[in-house]
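Q: Please design a sequence for this.
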């Protein structure tokens, strides 16, 4: 080997070593800033006042292992969706805005239960600055615990992705830990698809089920790969989950004295029937049809898109077959917010929180808020969208200035 070749080899090694050293230092700096940012938002959460309930309903585990609320009055559920806390050095400010919004709405509405229908977190490194999805999960769970509100999370496609450090099962174990007693998350059966298939019941003092609330994992991507996440090849609810749902309805019917319980279902990715129903409504000149009754809202995604799975899961057919579930609530599409009845089942998008996932969305406000679902003692229910930028929602910190025009793509 010549002297010149040796010098070139040494030079190449030095360059590689310098690049590696730079990357290590940069990663360390980013990790440190992320740590400081998470600690800053944890400190913010620690000074938020707990919700002032006059008489808070407290759930208990029933004989079937389901958390159960007991009341003869109305039961109020708040659906939040797509909070998208990043938990990294790039999302510190936007995380605090999302925390502020969630806290303000819960404090004002004082719901009996909060259901977060997926995408609590957003560990996408080019937006959040981290692969660590547990740091943002801790922020969400810590906020709910500080507020003292009972809540149920269901997973979305961004809560645990192929590039994240922690799996669904690991994040689910965090939510179900003794550290967060107000979280009612249950992993559900380990022999079926998904993590977080579980039921919460509302009963009256006579022991009858007023409403069963199904939490279902709609999963993430077809192959749970980085490629599928980039091409938006979304998964759906699987056949074994549908069989579980049907068995749960049968079991609840038996425990309810033979009466089929009324129920609602919450998950993240919309069913194909959301697209079918909206298409039928628009094809009829935005007028009701024999199958569709429109209540409110619109499709605001580019190209009027509804980002469901390509494959029909079959859950909607099972819902019709079992005769229990009256309403389905999802998230996922941040700019879609319609609510309509399709073949006797109310299909509703929740308002999103997102300050981070859609580029520039922090500056827009018409799509941000919560969905309040009032369940009457007879089991009937009524969902209402509530925009965050109302005077009744008093924030711990001053609300940001936004435009109330539609989000500019």
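A: Design:
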């Amino acid at each position: 080997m010549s002297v010149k070749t040796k010098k070139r080899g040494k030079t190449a090694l030095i360059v590689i070593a310098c690049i590696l050293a730079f990357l290590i230092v940069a990663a360390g700096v980013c990790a440190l800033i992320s740590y400081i940012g998470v600690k800053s938002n944890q400190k913010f959460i620690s000074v938020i006042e707990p919700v002032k309930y006059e008489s808070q309903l407290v759930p208990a585990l029933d004989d079937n292992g389901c958390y159960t609320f007991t009341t003869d009055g109305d039961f109020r559920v708040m659906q939040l969706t797509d909070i998208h806390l990043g938990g990294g050095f790039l999302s510190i400010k936007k995380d605090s805005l999302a925390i502020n919004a969630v806290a303000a709405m819960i404090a004002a509405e004082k719901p009996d239960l909060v259901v977060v229908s997926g995408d609590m977190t957003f560990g996408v490194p080019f937006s959040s600055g981290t692969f660590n999805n547990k740091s943002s999960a801790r922020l969400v769970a810590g906020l709910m615990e500080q507020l003292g509100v009972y809540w149920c999370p269901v997973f979305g496609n961004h809560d645990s992705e192929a590039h994240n450090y922690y799996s669904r099962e690991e994040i689910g174990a965090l939510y179900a830990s003794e550290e967060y007693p107000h979280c009612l998350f249950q992993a559900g059966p380990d022999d079926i698809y998904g993590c977080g298939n579980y039921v919460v019941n509302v009963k009256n003092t006579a022991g009858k089920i007023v409403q069963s609330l199904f939490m279902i994992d709609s999963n993430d991507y077809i192959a749970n790969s980085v490629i599928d996440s980039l091409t938006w090849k979304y998964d759906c609810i699987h056949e074994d989950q549908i069989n579980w749902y049907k068995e749960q309805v049968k079991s609840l019917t038996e425990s309810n004295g033979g009466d089929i319980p009324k129920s609602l279902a919450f998950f993240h990715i919309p069913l194909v029937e959301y697209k079918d129903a909206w298409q039928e409504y628009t094809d009829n000149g935005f007028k009701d049809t024999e199958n569709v009754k429109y209540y409110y809202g619109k499709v605001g995604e580019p190209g009027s898109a509804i980002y469901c799975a390509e494959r029909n899961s079959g859950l909607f057919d099972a819902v019709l077959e079992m005769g229990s579930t009256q309403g389905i609530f999802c998230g996922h599409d941040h700019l879609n917010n319609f609510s309509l009845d399709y073949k006797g089942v109310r299909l509703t998008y929740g308002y999103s929180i997102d300050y981070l996932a859609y580029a520039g969305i922090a500056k827009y406000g018409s799509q941000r808020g919560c969905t309040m679902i009032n369940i009457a003692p007879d089991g009937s229910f009524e969902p209402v969208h509530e925009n965050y930028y109302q005077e009744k929602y008093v924030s711990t910190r001053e609300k940001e200035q936004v435009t109330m025009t539609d989000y500019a793509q």
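Q: Thanks. Anything notable?
A: The chain has a mean pLDDT of 91. DSSP finds nine helices and 14 strands in the chain.
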